[in-house]
Amino acid sequence: MSFLQAAKMLTPQIKCNLCDQRQFKVVEEDQQPYNVLKCKNCSLVFVWPHPPHVELETHYDNGYYDEWISRQKARRQGMWRKRLKKVAKFKSSGYLLDVGCGEGAFLGLAQKKGWQVSGTEISAFAARYASEALNTDIFCGDLLSAHFKENYFDVVTMWHVLEHVDDPKKYLSEIQRILKPDGLFVLAVPNVNNLVFQIVYRIIRGRSLKLFTIGEKEIHLYHFSPVTLKRYLAATGFSCLSLAPDYGIIEPAKKIVNWISTIPYYLAGMQIFDAIEVVAVPKR
User: Fold this and answer.
1) So what's the pLDDT on residue 60?
2) What pTM, to 2 d.p., does this model score?
3) What's the total number of domains in the chain?
4) Which residues make Cβ contacts (< 8 Å) with residue 251, sequence separation at least 6?
5) 156-170, pLDDT tens digit by residue?
6) Does one domain contain both 62 and 183?
């Protein structure tokens, strides 16, 4: 039996995390035992089966963060300042939670601006590093295990984290629960429809961009488009205030490609930019 045949046998047992349907097509099937599927009903793209959770946790050790806290530190600070300014356009103080806070650089800037900060982080190394840097407790584990109080936070941010979790719907529902009724949610994820980046990648590498590779540095379990992301927000109790290109890129070459990819958006509304930034609020 070929791997493609095996994948087709598995798909009826899988339920789409977004729309609950069970009809899929195989997008990629050469990384056994993993394959990339696309829901025939809502077009959500995801990896199945998911890698073991313990493997994901140990993947983000101190080696993963080395460049963040050394060579890339200054450029990443600039990125975080821009993101904090984005939040400040809507809210300027209160209780802020950063889900998947990494080494805590964003929270550090927010703390200096007077925010009461909290964070979650599955990496034991990063959680410890952030706790020491901020002199505050960072929850080491996933958001669902943190059990924060209902209606507690004024702002929740999630910068390129949702694509890594095994149940996006549960995460978004939990964020809606812990946000105050007048709270703010700011989210950024990669865009599966990043056509410009895909074309440039093919030209430079001579092959198509893969959505999943065993052992890659960035393990993405879900691949969102603007359409599927908005559907997720609506299904979990959010109203989307804005959906636009995310400019949280620090590598010069990728920044240029990302800037080029935003031109069709501003000229014709084509959402083919490299990453998506969403501002949302709980439905009232």
Assistant:
1) 66
2) 0.91
3) 2
4) none
5) 999 999 999 999 999
6) yes
**What's the CA gap between 273 and 143, in Å, rounded?**
28
Angle between helices 226-235 and 168-178 (to 10 degrees): 50
The length of the chain in residues reads: 284
Contact 97, 119 (CB under 8 A): yes
Cis peptide before 52 (omega within 30 of 0): no
DSSP symbol at 195: H
Two tokens, residue 230: 């908005």
In our burial notation (b when 16+ CB lie closer than 10 A, e otherwise), range 3-35 reads eeeebeebbeebebbbbeeeebebbbbebeebb
Domain range for 187 is 53-282
Alpha-carbon distance of 263 to 227, in angstroms, equals 19
Contacts of 282 (CB under 8 A, 6+ apart): 176, 179, 181, 183, 185, 237, 238, 239
Same domain, 63 and 41: no
As a whole number, mean pLDDT of residues 78-97 equals 96
